[in-house]
TrEMBL record:
It catalyses: AMP + ATP = 2 ADP. Residues 31-60 are annotated as: NMP. Transmembrane segments: none annotated. It comes from the Bacteria. This is Adenylate kinase. Coiled coil: none annotated. The gene is adk. InterPro entries: Adenylat/UMP-CMP_kin, Adenylat_kinase_CS, P-loop_NTPase. Its main location: cytoplasm. GO terms for cellular component: cytoplasm. Monomer.
Length: 190
C-alpha cells in the first residue's frame, strides 16, 4: 500500500497535486478539512463532537480527528493507498496514524513536502484570492501568518519523518506538470 503524507505551506499546490496523484496512482485523497466539513454538514456523531469544540474556538482533540480519518480509511478497503493531506499535524497524531495503519498491515511510506519560497506563496495566494472568494487569501498579513503557523507546526513532523528516512522535500516551483514529475520520481522509488 502506498500511503503518503502530503505537506506544504498554504499556496504550495497540495490540492492540485493530490488530485493528479490520486488518479495516477489510484490512491484515495483524505483531506482533513474536507472530512471535517462532511461530518459536520451531515451531523454525524463525530461531526457534532468536533463542532462542539470548534464552536467554542477550541482545537478538536486528536482522538476525534483520528476517529474521523479511521472511518474514511475504513470506507475504502480496496484502496491501493492514501494521500493524507493536512494530517498529521503533531507527533501524537503521527504516532496515532502509524499505529492505526500498522493495525491494517501497512504504514506511511513517505512524507512529501512541497517546498516554495514565502514570497512566491504570498503572490500565489493573493492571485488565488482574486478568484477564490476566500478572505484568508486576500489579506497579505493573514497569508504571512498562515505561512508562519505552517512552519511552526510542521517543523516537528519534518524531523519525525526524517528520523524514519521517510521525509522527501520536493521543489514546488514550476509548472504543475514539472512538480508532478518531481513527486512521481519520489513515489516511483518507494
Amino acid at each position: 500500500m502506498t500511503n503518503l503524507v502530503l505537506f506544504g505551506p498554504p499556496g504550495a499546490g497540495k490540492g492540485t497535486q493530490a488530485d493528479i496523484l490520486k488518479e495516477k496512482y489510484q490512491l484515495v485523497h483524505i483531506s482533513t478539512g474536507d472530512v471535517f466539513r462532511y461530518n459536520i454538514k451531515n451531523q454525524t456523531e463525530l461531526g457534532l463532537t468536533a463542532k462542539s469544540f470548534i464552536d467554542k474556538g477550541q482545537l478538536v482533540p486528536d482522538e476525534v480527528t483520528i476517529n474521523m480519518l479511521n472511518a474514511e480509511v475504513d470506507k475504502n478497503p480496496e484502496a491501493k493507498g492514501f494521500i493524507f493531506d493536512g494530517f498529521p499535524r503533531t507527533e501524537n497524531q503521527a504516532d496515532a496514524l502509524a499505529e492505526f495503519l500498522k493495525g491494517k498491515g501497512t504504514e506511511v511510506k513517505a512524507m512529501i513536502a512541497l517546498e516554495v519560497e514565502d514570497e512566491v506563496l504570498v503572490k500565489r495566494l493573493l492571485e488565488r484570492g482574486k478568484t477564490s472568494g476566500r478572505k484568508d487569501d486576500a489579506d497579505e498579513a493573514v497569508i504571512r501568518n498562515r505561512i508562519t503557523v505552517y512552519y511552526d507546526e510542521t517543523a516537528i513532523l519534518k524531523e519525525y519523518y526524517k528520523k524514519q528516512d521517510k521525509y522527501y522535500g520536493v521543489d514546488g516551483v514550476g509548472s504543475v506538470e514539472e512538480i508532478t514529475e518531481r513527486i512521481s520520481n519520489v513515489i516511483d522509488k518507494l
